[in-house]
Design goal:
By secondary structure, this protein is of the alpha/beta class. The chain has two domains: 316 residues, ABC transporter type 1, transmembrane domain (ABC transporter transmembrane region fold, Up-down Bundle), CATH 1.20.1560; 240 residues, 3-Layer(aba) Sandwich (Rossmann fold). 63% of the residues lie in helices and 10% in strands. The strands form three sheets. The protein has a six-stranded mixed sheet with strand order 6-9-10-3-11-12, sandwiched between helices. Strands 2-1-4-5 form a four-stranded antiparallel sheet, with no helix packed on it. It has a two-stranded antiparallel sheet with strand order 7-8. Strand 1 and strand 2 form a beta hairpin. It is elongated and about 115 Å long.
């Protein structure tokens, strides 16, 4: 049942939805919240409310004094008003600082979660969508907490104002209570609308962000396929949806203005209509009515703020729901398991492995043998499962059935950290990180790399052939994706990184596919040195690669077609791919 529940979480698209307050608060777990700043903010809000109460009382007293106001009382009024301004400014400053500290801490926690999230969840959600979580959704964390703090201050302030009004006149204060249920009804409706509109707004914003990140990354493909107009239209659709969502948000803001006007009319009507009656009866003075009206205005302002904060709270709840759901997905445990000590080499065995990216299995009861310290070529048509084999070997994914053995022990029993330290992947697209050539070659190394070691590896991988002609040498900046280097140069750097990692097992996805004839010869020499005394698995697309292998695995539709020595595979299998390779051998076109 647990597995099924986890899959249910992973299969979410992580669009914004409603979560409980308890779930929402869960995202702040293990975060050092700035309680000091938040307490200071509440205290300043309360002090400001108390000072405002004193200012309001002075207004009524001034009217009843008929202009005979003592200088001392006027000075007290001025100083109290200044104190209100200071408290308000201090409250806003402390709230802003607390909010940004919360955002900063949550972004760090979220980035850690993204890094350790299982690849399956990452593939379902996509890196583009995750960008909006870190950059946009996190901003609502501070709004969420500042709203909670503000509501706490409002409740206490309201109690202070109502107490003061009851001290002036109980009957008039009772009429004020009519204002409260009206405010709650209007505020509740407004908050619900803000939640619905805010949820849709965040979903559309996330979709637009994901679209822009993905498409800007693939601009060369868009241009070479003459798909500019198509993408312009597609972008227009996303922007239109975001525009319509923002219009809805503007409509809800207009409703807030209407609510404010209604409450404003009530705050004027109740004290003056009822107050006029009490003045006529001689129960209250005009000054008392003005004081009462000022206090009631403060209550109205407080409730206006409460309605706004309730809307903010709902909107933040909708936005933070995306983060909350994401924090619930399963993550990797890099340190869990047995540590692989030393440079031990063992055969790798796939034993009745079942695997699929979705409910449909790609591999069914798949078994094969990868001998230690040998070169194994993996052969198969597109979609046969070659890349999946590599993903399972790097443990980006785990089998859903069966097991992968390292010697006589399951790979799942070893820690991911130590396993991935043993295995190094050189991908066909040779990904590079933004930084310098030096940083790319040494990427993954946690110890100090001397200049002599770097130079030796660069020469062996033929990186030095082009680095020596660059003005900044190894400190030459690599743009995002390595766009300022050719495919061959990027592959040389990837091979240098593999050499630097000193891994015992190499996974090569046609590591020389982007090289010219001369550089291919040079890099093959480097790879020969790299593969010596290492377990090497190569996804093979050429007969030359197969001929140089010690062992061949033929995969067809996720099943083992055959495995063994290259000559035996070509002689005995009935697989059409092997026959085609046999004909190429005879023709010598790829020999």
């Amino acid at each position: 049942m647990k597995k099924r529940a986890d899959q249910g979480i992973e299969n979410r698209s992580y669009t914004a939805d409603k979560v409980s307050l308890r779930e929402c608060l869960g995202i702040f777990k293990n975060i050092n919240l700035p309680w000091g700043l938040m307490v200071i903010g509440v205290l300043l809000a309360l002090l400001g409310s108390y000072a405002t109460l004193q200012v309001s009382s002075f207004s009524g007293a001034a009217v009843d004094a008929s202009g005979e106001i003592l200088v001392q009382e006027m000075m007290t009024y001025i100083l109290t008003s200044v104190f209100v301004v200071i408290c308000t400014a201090g409250m806003m400053l402390s709230s802003t600082m607390a909010g940004e500290k919360i955002n900063y801490a949550l972004r760090q926690k979220l980035w850690h979660k993204i890094i350790v999230t299982k690849q399956r969840s990452y593939d379902l959600d996509g890196g583009e969508s995750m960008v909006s979580r870190v950059t946009t959704d996190c901003d609502y964390a501070s709004k969420f907490y500042s709203t909670v703090v503000s509501i706490a201050g409002i409740v206490i302030s309201t109690a202070m104002y109502l107490t003061a009004m009851y001290q002036i006149n109980v009957k008039m204060a009772n009429y004020v209570l009519l204002f409260i249920p009206v405010s709650i009804l209007l505020g509740g409706g407004y908050a619900f609308l803000r939640f619905l509109v805010g949820r849709r707004m965040q979903a559309k914003l996330a979709a637009s962000t994901a679209y822009l990140v993905e498409r800007t990354k693939d601009l060369p493909l868009i241009k070479t396929c003459n798909a500019q107009q198509k993408e312009i239209e597609e972008g227009r659709k996303h922007f239109k949806e975001q525009y319509e969502a923002q219009l809805r948000l503007g409509f809800v803001s207009a409703i807030a203005t209407v609510i404010d006007s209604v409450l404003q009319m009530l705050s004027i009507a109740i004290p003056f209509l009822v107050g006029a009656y009490f003045v006529a009866q001689g129960v209250l003075t005009i000054g008392a009515i003005i004081t009462f009206n000022t206090l009631f205005g403060n209550v109205k302002t407080v409730f206006n703020n409460l309605i706004t904060y309730a809307g903010d709270f709902k909107e933040a709840n909708g936005a933070l729901a995306r983060i909350t759901r994401f924090f619930q997905v399963e993550e990797e445990q890099p340190e869990a398991g047995i540590e692989i000590k030393g440079s031990s080499q063992e055969d790798i065995v796939f034993n009745q492995v079942d695997f699929g990216y979705t409910d449909q299995l790609i591999m069914k009861q798949f078994s094969c043998h990868i001998p230690k310290n040998k070169i194994t070529a993996v052969v198969g048509t597109n979609g046969s499962g070659k890349s999946t084999l590599f993903k399972l070997l790097t443990r980006l994914y785990e089998p859903q059935g069966g097991e992968i053995l390292f010697g006589d022990k399951s790979c799942a029993g070893y820690s991911l950290h130590s396993w991935r330290k043993k295995v190094c992947l050189i991908a066909q697209d040779s990904p590079m990180m933004a930084g310098t050539i030096r940083e790319n070659i040494c990427y993954g190394r946690t110890d100090y790399v001397s200049e002599e070691e770097l130079l030796e590896v660069a020469k062996l991988s033929h990186v030095y052939d082009f680095v020596k002609d660059l003005p900044n040498g190894f400190d030459t900046v690599v743009t995002a994706g390595g766009g300022n280097f050719s495919g061959g140069q990027k592959q040389c750097i990837a091979i240098a990184r593999a050499m630097m990692s000193k891994s015992d097992c190499l996974l090569l996805d046609e590591a020389t596919s982007n090289l010219d004839v001369k550089r291919e010869k040079d890099v093959m020499e480097a790879l020969d040195r790299l593969m010596k005394n290492r377990t090497t698995v190569i996804i093979a697309h050429s007969i030359a690669t197969i001929k140089n292998a010690d062992h061949v695995i033929v995969i067809n539709k996720g099943k083992l077609e055959m495995e063994g020595a290259p000559s035996r595979i070509l002689e005995q299998t009935d697989n059409y791919l092997a026959k085609m390779m046999g004909r190429r051998l005879e023709s010598g076109s790829l020999g």
